[in-house]
């Protein structure tokens, strides 16, 4: 049984940082690309960042330079380090691996 579990969300002030985790079981995250998406309140799902099987990384323009995606193969976990957070980063963040999705973790950026 494949399971993706996100964690690390929370409430943070503008300019702050959070580090999201996507831990997998039943599948190896190093075998294919892993993508972080987010769903802001009242909006459609947005792609945030992707890390490929070969560890290449891609970022949406609105997070480039502020977010960093990485993978720890030994822990079978993908991370999303989010720095310089803005109120518009408020969203439910999900990781995706092939056809599988996690349950999401809420990030709220507010003073």
Task: Please specify the SSE layout and strand pairing.
Elements: E1 3-7, E2 10-12, E3 18-25, E4 34-39, E5 46-51, E6 57-59, E7 67-72, E8 77-82, E9 91-97, E10 100-101, E11 105-109
Parallel strand pairs: 2-11
Antiparallel strand pairs: 1-3, 3-8, 4-5, 4-9, 5-6, 7-8, 9-10, 9-11
Could you characterize the architecture of this molecule?
It is built from no helices and 11 strands. The model has no long low-confidence stretch (mean pLDDT 97). It is an all-beta fold. Strands 2, 4, 5, 6, 9, 10 and 11 form a 7-stranded mixed sheet that branches. Strands 1-3-8-7 form a 4-stranded antiparallel sheet, with no helix packed on it. The chain is globular and about 40 Å long.
What can be said about this structure in brief?
The chain has 111 residues and is mostly beta strands. It has strands spanning 3-7, 10-12, 18-25, 34-39, 46-51, 57-59, 67-72, 77-82, 91-97, 100-101, 105-109.
Overall form: globular
Number of helices: 0
Mean pLDDT: 97
As a percent range, the share of strand residues is over 45%
Query: Sheet bearing the most strands, described?
Result: 7 strands, mixed
The strand count comes to 11
- Residue stretches low in confidence (pLDDT < 50, at least 5 long) are none
Name the structural class.
Answer: mainly beta
Q: Could you tell me the radius of gyration in angstroms?
A: 13 Å
Terminal CA distance reads 40 Å
Order of helices and strands: EEEEEEEEEEE
Helix content: under 10%
């Amino acid at each position: 049984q494949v399971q993706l579990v996100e964690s690390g969300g929370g409430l943070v002030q503008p300019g702050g940082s959070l580090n999201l985790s996507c831990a997998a079981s039943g599948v190896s995250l190093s075998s294919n690309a892993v993508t972080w998406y987010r769903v802001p309140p009242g909006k459609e799902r947005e792609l945030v960042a992707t890390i490929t099987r070969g560890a290449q990384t891609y970022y949406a323009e609105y997070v480039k330079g502020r977010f960093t995606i990485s993978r720890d193969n030994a822990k079978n976990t993908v991370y999303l380090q989010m720095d310089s957070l803005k109120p518009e980063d408020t969203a439910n963040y999900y990781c995706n691996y092939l056809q599988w999705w996690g349950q999401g973790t809420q990030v709220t950026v507010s003073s």
